[in-house]
Amino acid sequence: MEAARPRGRRRRTRRGTVDSPLNVRLVRVASLLVVPALLAMLFSISTTGTLPRPALAPLFDAQAAATLATQLQTEYPSRIPGSPGDAGAARWFEETISASGFATREDVWRESVPGLGDVVLRNVITTIPGRSAQAVILVAHRDNQGAGAPFGENASGTAALIELARGYAPQEASAAAQPQRTVILVSTDAGAYGGAGAYRFVGRSQAARDAFAAVILDGIAGRGSPQVLVAGDGATSPAPALVSTAVARVREQVGTTPELASAATQLVDLGIPYAAGEQGPFLGAGTAAVTLTTDRHGDAVGISTTRLGQLGSATETLLGSIDASVGRAFGTHDSLFFRGRKASGWTVRLALVVAVVPFALGVLDLVVRVRRRGLRIAPAARSLRARVLFWLYAGLLLGIGAVLGVFPTGAALPLPPTSPAVGGRPVAGLALLGISLLLGWLVGRRRLIVSSRATPEDRLAGYAVALAWLAAVAVVTAVTHPYALLFVLPSLYTWLWLPLRTRIWARALVYGAGFAGLAFALVVLSREIGLSLPATALYAADLVTVGYIPVSVALLVIGWLAAAAQLAALAFGRYTPYAGGTEPPPPSVVRESVGAVARRVRARA
User: Fold this and answer.
1) Is residue 49 a contact partner of residue 244, using CB atoms and an 8 Å limit?
2) Contact assessment for residue 146 and residue 116, using Cβ atoms and an 8 Å cutoff
3) 123 dihedral zone (left: phi>0; alpha: psi -120 to 50; beta)
4) pLDDT band at 118 (very low <50, low <70, confident <90, very high)
5) Roughly what angle, to the nearest 10 degrees, separates helices 504-513 and 485-495?
6) Which residues contact 100 (CB under 8 A, 6 or more apart)?
7) Residue 285's Cα: distance from chain center in Å?
8) Which of 408, 463, 474, 586 has its CA at a distance of 20 to 30 angstroms from the CA of residue 45?
9) Which residues make Cβ contacts (< 8 Å) with residue 410, sequence separation at least 6?
10) What is the pLDDT of residues 400-438, one digit of tens each?
């Protein structure tokens, strides 16, 4: 006689069924793979070595540098790239630095700068020969965004460049004062518009390829706290020895530790990537580089002679430390810097990549079980395809908006948030693009309208297809842009549980949590550039249209949004298989349109 089943005990649903589609145990066990990667990241945290301080005290003359900065601002208050004031400032720099006995070389070219159009730009380059052909580069841009414009004014950096050069003047220097390594001084153009001059120098100059370290001076006379910028173009960071030495030299002169970007900001900059400073192109080319600054627009509200003297002297001693160092200490590897320590970037990337594995295994198991049960995958795949096509259409509209002037075009530069290309968008153009996007959505949803309630089997197939597509996007992201997984992982491990949630409010909470990574990126970037969240989203679109954010990244975002759209329909009960699941499906709008045109052409023939 069969024993009675105890009351209150429910029969466990079999994994792979509609009621329990996810193998939770597999995901939990696979999650243990992340533990060794996290331990490796923790054990990689170490202190950063600091290069020795030079024996000679700095000779930087703060008053002389302040006089030069004031003279530049007075004679050429507006130095917009390509303008007569910009050309005059270039001549002023050449004449001033030549008075100390240095020969200069001018690099003139034309470039399409976002917000300015096609303009003539000038870099002025001065080479101070050393005992070695290895070069240390000192950079400061001399342009600004116009008289009185607070952002991008760098008269202090230009003046410091001249004053530092005087320490190597032939009539003043002795043989002992000759640097061990060649020092290259570069007065760049369009630094206030994304650093076009720095990109030109890095891309075209042999001296840049011979260099192993670069220091950029940008607004060093402001009254704000000193800062050291370390973000680069791509997943690269300056050498830890350079960062720690720059921090130490500034702390010795100022008395306080300069600010570094927070670990969260550094992660976002590595994941996008985004470099708000002229150190970006140098790091992208493999040259260790940092930027010394205060608030990047302090010069426009008055030159602080004290701060200029402090950071000028810090730069002089930093150059002395670099000059006496060993070149191999300046390799560029991705790292995270915080509180005098650093975490090796490869361990962070490893932890992010390994974190995808449990999700991928859980989705693979789900797809296999769905296929084994014989559920119809094709209609769900067509639904996803329709959503992918819609978001591709949205990307096409973004490109059309760039052609029409709604979004900027030009050189692939990290646009400053105060650039004319970022502000002052035509409202009519944005409205037209919005209406076009709405019409595309209305046309595309014709085959996705809920005509009848989807069966549990159809919903499960929809979940399997959407999660499999999301896993594919995550794997491609892991291979091409591993740091970007920081923005994707929250969606993986929240949306994976959507099929197990039966109540709509629970599904809504789980679905909303999947956008935590995107929200984190927007909030951090918004604080970094000083724009509101909606403006930051449009700013990211600007970086795409100018080419600073690669098309490959934009395509990954489109793929992620398509998966998010299908999962939203499933979570909120608005999902239906493509064309109601009819086989074969009726022709799409595109096929209908092409067929109609073809029939008319044949009729006329």
Assistant:
1) yes
2) no
3) beta
4) very high
5) 170
6) 162, 165, 166, 169, 171
7) 16
8) 474
9) 111, 112, 113, 114, 115, 117, 421, 546
10) 999 998 999 989 999 888 888 887 788 888 999 999 999
Tracing tokens 């910028």 back to the chain, one arrives at 229
DSSP for 41-99, written as a single string: HHHT-EEPP-PPPPSSPP---HHHHHHHHHHHHHH-S---TTSHHHHHHHHHHHHHHHT
Note the pLDDT tens digit of each residue in 307-328. Answer: 999 999 999 999 999 988 765 6
* Domains parsed from the chain with CATH numbers: 62-339 (3.40.630.10), 376-596 (no CATH)
Candidates 577, 164, 172, 582; CA nearest to 377 is: 577
Query: Shortest CA distance to 17 belongs to which of 462, 366, 342?
Result: 366
Structure tokens at 168: 């190597």
From the number of C-beta atoms within 10 Å of its C-beta (0-12, 13-18, 19+), residue 160 rates as buried
Mean pLDDT of the 10-35 span: 74
Q: Put residue 106 in one of left, alpha, beta given phi > 0 → left and psi -120 to 50 → alpha.
A: beta
Q: In sequence order, what are the beta bridge partners of 213?
A: 136, 288
What's the pLDDT score for residue 594?
Answer: 63
Strand partners, 109: 121
HEC-encoded secondary structure of 448-506: HCCCCCCCHHHHHHHHHHHHHHHHHHHHHHHHHCHHHHHHHHHHHHHHCCHHHCCCHHH
First to last CA, the chain: 84
Helix pair 485-495, 356-372: axis angle to 10 deg: 40
